[in-house]
Amino acid sequence: MTQRHWVQNGYMMLITTNVKDRLPLFLDAAYAREAIEVLYRVQELHIFFLYGFVIMPDHCHLLIRITEEIKMSKIMNRFKMGLSHSIGKGPIWQARFDCRIVRDPWRALKYIHQNPVKAGLCIKPEDYPWSSASGKWDVMELEGW
């Protein structure tokens, strides 16, 4: 499940990871909530800045910046394995994930927050409960970017 990425610490990155076979696992509210809780537990163990996220039915987007000496692949490994274990399901993820340097964080955050709107899951980004746009979850402000 790990993957080598040339992009590592200090950059803001947009991460996308997909559920295996694109099954809509996170239509189950309990699983979607647990995905967010696991993300925060991983953040406690491996310090990174979380600027935004969305848990879609079959994939997740994260906007993060790593500052400590840990690889993105380790963070994603802990997130993916932790969530699989936490919900008691076997391998639920595709083996790889996509990682891109973000040059315009505001645009990346808008893309993340508009995902459920484009998918027809809500009318406004703030109406989708499994997104940082909802205002229910703690994330870093993009002030200064």
Mean pLDDT: 91
- The gyration radius over C-alpha positions equals 14 Å
- Helical residue percent? 25-40%
Structural class: alpha+beta
Main sheet: strand order = 2-3-1-4
Describe this protein's structure:
With 145 residues, the chain is of the alpha+beta class. It has one domain (12-134): Transposase IS200-like (Alpha-Beta Plaits, 2-Layer Sandwich), CATH 3.30.70.1290. 32% of the residues lie in helices and 23% in strands. It has three helices and four strands; from the N terminus they run E-H-E-E-H-E-H. A hairpin with a 3-residue loop joins strand 2 and strand 3 (59-66). It is globular. Mean pLDDT is 91; it is low at 1-5.
Offer a quick outline of the entry.
This protein has one domain: 2-Layer Sandwich (Alpha-Beta Plaits). The chain is 32% helix and 23% strand. It has helices spanning 29-45, 72-87, 105-118, and strands spanning 12-19, 48-55, 59-66, 93-101.
Quick tags:
145 residues, alpha+beta, Alpha-Beta Plaits, four-stranded antiparallel beta sheet, 23% strand
Sequence-ordered SSE layout with sheet pairings:
Blueprint: E1 12-19, H1 29-45, E2 48-55, E3 59-66, H2 72-87, E4 93-101, H3 105-118
Antiparallel strand pairs: 1-3, 1-4, 2-3
Helix pairs in contact: 1-2
